[in-house]
């Protein structure tokens, strides 16, 4: 985010021709260099919608105020001044309705699993989950216990796993930036949620080989990487 | 808490030892079925039959001038080789030196192994007896709200029994594509 913003400001400050100029820093763009689309009015930015959305989403990962166990202490430290998650655009939100990101920071027992699932369902799409620590990744030292879920990915889908017991804030920040990299590759997704919806779009229910359905005209190449 | 004696063994709290001896003599007459033993460390072990449990508890809780008015802990034990379940109430006296372990056993092969609840004597027993019920499957007769406290209500079995078998189906990873809200 910082890089793009600095470039944007530089554009405004740089002495420029009267009204039209070539913006140099969009060379990664798919529009050919000689295209008139590359000419922009000063103060007006051009981007493809998918990249713009991804840029906004990955830099405003608002996460839920939700700590489960000892990992939550480390998560709070990461959110506080010393490691300062705010600089990545991530803030605590006190309700799942305003959050699009969840740290699962602790052991999930079977009673808690229902609550985690409920909170996840209450979050609006698009939403992402980071499993923090050994317990949330695999059950950790409690895997095999009569009441412990061996990893939160048995309950809700997980995007990034950060092992550790608990992970250091640096590791958590690394996980967050990796999630941002994942989000940067996503497409405009319309994920069918129920079996009926999946059937309506011609996919067999429960097929893990199926892919999210892209709206017509969007770039299908930028889909989420599904970890095996 | 306790300093060590000359031989390196913990020094016995003499006040506690005296209180235990007095309590043992008192219990012998008040509750004839109780087997009270003063342990070498000065604490008192009281074994009672389930039928005598509440009477013994009332004697201990009402003993002047140092009533055993603080129920510190309720523990459950499983003894499969003896076929018994044991419940231990650990009692302190806040005004005095006494410390008592009140023990009761019940046959573990019963459908509902049950002992009387002591919530009427020590109200704090309520949650602790629920925990013993939840994890070991001891039913406390007369308990006002005998439900599971730690595990889900539909949990099957009592996991701290030595013969507990986890019958949950294997877990499967949920992906974004097959997630069911």
Distance between the termini of chain A: 30 Å
Strands side by side in the biggest sheet of chain A: 5-6-7
N- and C-termini, Cα separation of chain B: 54 Å
Give me the side-by-side strand order of the main sheet of chain B.
1-2-5-4-3
CATH level-1 class of the domain at 63-184 in chain A: Alpha Beta
SS class of chain A: alpha/beta
**Secondary-structure class of chain B:** alpha/beta
Description:
The complex is a heterodimer of chains A (228) and B (181). Chain A has 228 residues and is an alpha/beta fold. Among the domains of chain A are: 16-46, no CATH class; 63-184, Rossmann fold, CATH 3.40.50. Helix content of chain A is 32%, strand content 9%. Chain A is built from seven helices and seven strands; from the N terminus they run H-E-E-H-E-H-E-E-H-E-H-E-H-H. In chain A, the strands form three sheets. Chain A has a three-stranded parallel β-sheet. In chain A, helix 3 (70-79) packs across helix 6 (169-184). Chain A starts with a helix and ends in a 28-residue tail after the last helix. The relative contact order of chain A is 0.12. By secondary structure, chain B is α/β, with parallel strands linked by helices. Chain B has a domain at 14-109: 2-Layer Sandwich (Beta Polymerase, domain 2), CATH 3.30.460. In chain B, a hairpin with a 6-residue loop joins strand 4 and strand 5. The longest helix of chain B is centred in the first third of the chain and has 17 residues, at 14-30. The radius of gyration of chain B is 20 Å and the shape is elongated. Chain A binds chain B through residues 110-111, 121, 146-147, 149-151, 153-157, 191, 193-195, 206-208, 210-212, 224, 226, and chain B through 150-152, 155, 159, 164, 166, 171-181.
């Amino acid at each position: 985010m910082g890089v793009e913003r600095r470039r944007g400001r530089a554009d405004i400050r740089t002495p420029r021709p009267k009204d039209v100029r070539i913006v140099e820093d969009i060379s990664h763009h798919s529009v050919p260099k000689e295209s008139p689309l590359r000419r922009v009015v000063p103060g007006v930015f051009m981007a493809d919608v998918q990249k713009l959305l991804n840029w906004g989403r990955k830099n405003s990962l608002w996460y839920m105020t939700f700590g489960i166990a000892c990992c939550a202490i480390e998560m709070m430290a990461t959110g506080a001044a010393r490691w300062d998650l705010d600089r990545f655009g991530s803030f605590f939100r006190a309700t799942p309705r305003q959050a699009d990101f969840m740290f699962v920071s602790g052991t999930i027992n079977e009673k808690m699993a229902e609550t985690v699932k409920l909170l996840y369902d209450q979050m609006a799409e698009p939403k992402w989950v980071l499993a923090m620590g050994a317990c949330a990744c695999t059950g950790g030292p409690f895997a095999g216990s009569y009441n412990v879920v061996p990893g939160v990915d048995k309950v809700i889908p997980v995007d990034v796993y950060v092992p550790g017991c608990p992970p250091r804030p640096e590791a958590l920040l690394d996980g967050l930036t990796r999630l941002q990299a994942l989000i940067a590759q996503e497409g405009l997704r319309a994920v069918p949620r129920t079996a009926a919806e999946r059937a309506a779009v011609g996919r067999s229910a429960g097929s893990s080989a199926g892919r999210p359905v892209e709206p017509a005209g969007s770039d299908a190449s930028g889909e989420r990487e599904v970890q095996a | 808490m306790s300093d060590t004696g000359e031989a390196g063994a913990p020094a016995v709290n003499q006040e506690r030892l005296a209180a235990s001896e007095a309590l043992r003599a008192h219990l012998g007459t008040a509750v004839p079925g109780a087997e009270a033993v003063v342990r070498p460390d000065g604490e008192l072990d009281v074994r009672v039959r389930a039928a005598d449990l509440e009477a013994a508890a009332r004697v201990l809780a009402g003993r002047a001038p140092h009533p055993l008015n603080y129920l510190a802990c309720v523990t459950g034990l499983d003894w499969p080789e003896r076929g018994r379940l044991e419940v231990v109430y650990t009692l302190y006296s806040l005004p005095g030196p006494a410390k008592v372990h009140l023990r009761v056993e019940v046959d573990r092969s019963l459908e509902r192994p049950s002992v009387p609840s002591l919530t009427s004597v020590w109200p704090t027993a309520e949650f602790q007896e629920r925990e013993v019920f939840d994890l070991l499957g001891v039913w406390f007769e007369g308990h006002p709200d005998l439900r599971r406290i730690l595990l889900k209500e539909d949990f099957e079995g009592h996991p701290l029994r030595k013969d507990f078998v986890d019958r949950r189906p294997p877990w499967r990873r949920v992906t974004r594509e097959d997630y069911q809200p």
